[in-house]
Amino acid sequence: MRRIETLKFFVFFLFFLLLFFLESKILISPFAIAFYMALIYSKQNVILLSTLYVVASLIINFSFVSFLISITPCAVILLAYFVHYYTKKKISLFFIHIYLFVSQIPVMIVGANDIPAIIYTAISVIIAQVFIYCVIIVLYATLIKHFSLKFTTEENISSVVILCVIGMCITSFKIAWFEIYFTILLITVVLFLFIDKKVIIPISVFFGLGSLIYSLDSTAFTISVLYGLTAFCFSKPTHRIAAMIIVVTDFLLRFILSADGTISMFKMLAPAIGAIIVILIPNKIKNSLSIFETCFKDRKASRSLINRDRHVMAEKISTLSSVFCEIGDILQIDNSTLKDHADVANITKEVCLRCCATCPGLSNCRDTLNGADTDIIVTGLVAGALNTNRATILDTPQMLSSRCRKINAIISVTNEILKRYKSCEQSRTEFNESREMISVQMKGVGSILGTLRLDIGKLLSFDTVKENRLIEELIANNIYASEAIIYGMDKNDYSVIIVVRESDSRKSNLPDLISMILGTKMAVCKIEKTINEMTSVYLEKATRFQVVYGNKERAKSVDGFIGDRHRAIRIAHNKIMLILSDGMGSGINAGKNASYAINLIESFYRVGFDHATIATTVSRLLSIRNTEEFNAIDVILIDTSDGSADFIKMGGRESFIVDQGVVEVVECGSLPVGIIVDGAVPLVEKRILNSGNFIIMVSDGVIDALGRDAIVDRLSELRTGNPDAVANLIISDYDRIVESNASEPDDASVIVAKIFSQPETTQINTST
């Protein structure tokens, strides 16, 4: 890393020398100072840059005036850094243009001698302001984006300006008859075969244009274009041949253009040296130039790789989904085979073995039964005992009670065996229920993975054209994005990820600019820090509706602990969930149980389980606690994309929808969570909400105190749009009823949500 930094500043110093040398030839000085200021704006080392800048100036022109002119921008920048540090303001693009202008005051003073000098000075000031902007744009692409994205239109234009200036610099740097311009141009056009051959001709043209501007000689421009056309006809494997052919075509063109049909061989030395250098450069170095390819090409290959990986992942998830579903089936089949009825025969056999087998009167009993075993008689006793859970003399068949001398022993042994059997049966039932719960979970996971497989299996489409437009628009508004990705499964439903400076991530105009480019309103859904003070901003298509909510509660117990729990959370970009859990009883224990239920339900819904699976699983999990603590659960899932809402009732009380004074009651139903009933499912009601609608959820303490009709009457008379105010009205009525002793107090909770439309239009704010 230190070696790269050293090389970087060496290149900066080389540019300073070339620019100062050019300025010494053309009598205007806009380039070096603009390049210096652009590097400062790009957060390069101020002290080191200032030193290199002053040294380069003195090498080209060692004089007091040169020193004074070069030290002025350094002093201005150091003072500016001091001021910005204490005012805690960053140096913006506006400020850097101001500091550039102030730094040129000595040039203005020195150049105020006569009219031509004043004109040259004015040209220097104007060109410097344009050149600094172009350099900042290109430095952004190189130092911040690290050549990772295709050049935008603005970056391409800025690159053209810099190419022309470089062409002027190299043309001005001539050692006697040796024109280093043609050496560098030949190396450049040939090496660009390893990057992107489509840009070779534009590079040669604008290099030549810079040479033409400086020398006013069309020959250099013509030869430059010829270099580009010749190199364009070759490819990477034949780049050495391309270098030699360029030398030959250079010779032929000079020969044709010469007035007397002769040509100095010294002029051919520059392209010949360039060709030799190209041939001697190791292939490893040449091939490494491909890292700059992304500057000129759309990254279609990397996007295809993403879709390929998604396809592979989808296949793996599909296989995993099948595995979980099969596990669920196996456990369910095992459960059905394990659910046996009472084994009357086995119990009867054990009773007979312990009582009848050792009885002296066994032979008499068999004679009475015509040789049959005593099992026939004892079976009736055991069957009756299984039905009543205890064997008594009343369950004993008449033949057994009238003839058997050990009837009391038989009843006692039957009860003993029955007790042991019931204990084993209970353990087996609990085990079977646990297996059944796991079976349901396995199938639920399999179903979720199956849905995920369908989502991942869909190919993502990318809009690279809009990505480039977006980056250009952000740069124009002083928001520097190192990367932008616009993707989606549907061209009308894109998602956006942009990587910007941390200071830019929360600018109010950021979503508006992205919305303008995509033609649809976008909203920020997540911001994550990355590295190098950069931040990833994730945006999704703005939903049609927003939801705000208010709540109010009262505790029954004097200790202030309420047995109700509620929560309003966003479980997805377009999903808002409201939960009200009413624990059995009141106080801290009921509150804990209600919290358990809410936490489980929230987690399951976030994962993606369906309503029935969640209700069954949570009920079984809570029932395992061996305490009869049940929860009335009321859940509302609001889809902010279309305004639909699912009302899920698991023992929850009525909910209310208020639409312009009209109150609709969503009925309660289903058993509370914690009560296990085979085949029981939660009550699910779907409604379509409109903008301005209120949704009211209440616990049974409120319903029992006020009554359903009184709540409907109160809601039909609402004169407020504030959810908190609605919740306060209902709790105030509850307090009044309780204080008048018209109702026994209980924990009371109210949640009020209001749904309203998003603004249809967005004012584009382009301020920085």
Index terms:
768 residues, alpha+beta, 5 domains, 5-stranded antiparallel sheet, 57% helix
Overall description:
- The chain is α+β, with helices and mostly antiparallel strands.
- It folds into five domains: 1-144; 176-297; 344-429, no CATH class; 461-541, Alpha-Beta Plaits, CATH 3.30.70; 545-757, 4-Layer Sandwich (Phosphatase 2c, domain 1).
- Helix content is 57%, strand content 15%.
- The protein has a five-stranded antiparallel beta sheet.
- The radius of gyration is 43 Å and the shape is elongated.
- Residues 333-342 and 761-768 have low confidence and may be disordered.
Quick gist of this model?
The protein is of the alpha+beta class. The longest helix has 51 residues, at 407-457.
What is the alpha-carbon Rg in Å? 43 Å
CATH architectural designation of the largest domain: 4-Layer Sandwich
What is the average per-residue confidence, as pLDDT, rounded to a whole number? Answer: 78
Could you say which overall geometry the principal axes of the C-alpha atoms support? elongated
CATH homologous superfamily assignment of the largest domain: PPM-type phosphatase domain
- Kindly identify the CATH topology of the largest domain: Phosphatase 2c, domain 1
Largest sheet: 5 strands, antiparallel
Gap from first CA to last CA:
34 Å
CATH class of the largest domain: Alpha Beta
Query: What number of structural domains do the residues give?
Result: 5
Report the helical percentage: 55-70%
Strands, count: 17
User: How much of the sequence is in beta strands?
Assistant: 15-25%
Structural class: alpha+beta
